[in-house]
Amino acid sequence: MKNLVNLRSLVLAATLFSGIVAAQKISSNSVKTVVSGTSTLHEWSMTSTGGNFSGNVSGNSIQDVRYAMGSKTLKSGKGPMDANAYKALLADKYPNITFSASSVNLGKGTMTGKLTVTNVTKTVTVPVNVTKSGDTYTIWGTASIKMTDYGVTPPAFMMNTVKTGNEVKITVNAVAK
């Protein structure tokens, strides 16, 4: 009986230890994010490579997914457009755009989490593709949102003759180790 109790304790300890060892913390400090949309004049896009991603790999999923990007890291290559975007995003008051999710599975699927822009947080479901190569994970996803849902007034300029469309597409590509 004593040997059976010792065996159970050993199996339990090995199981707990293997779960701890199997977890892999991954992160990236150069996540590429593209925000694109339309206006009455032309299509536009802004790109950032300053986003941060982190998570914990557990089996075939990534747990505790975290993403953050400074609003002012988005650049269009056109200074006045950038200034209008930062003003609309209230970037001085709310400098970060964040997303968090409890988990995402490897492969193609969806990830549901909380997106925060300005001071508004909403639950979004994002189509994603998560691949693994060695100890590197690539997480790619695209979602469309309406700026007004997040307290952002679509920018307008040239005395309101050029107006930005309300819907924007956000594409995030994180390569994490």
UniProtKB/TrEMBL annotation:
Gene3D superfamilies: Lipid/polyisoprenoid-binding, YceI-like (2.40.128.110). Transmembrane segments: none annotated. Residues 1-23 form the signal peptide. The keyword Signal applies. The keyword Signal applies. Keywords: Signal. Residues 31-177 form the Lipid/polyisoprenoid-binding YceI-like domain. This is Polyisoprenoid-binding protein YceI. It comes from Kaistella treverensis.
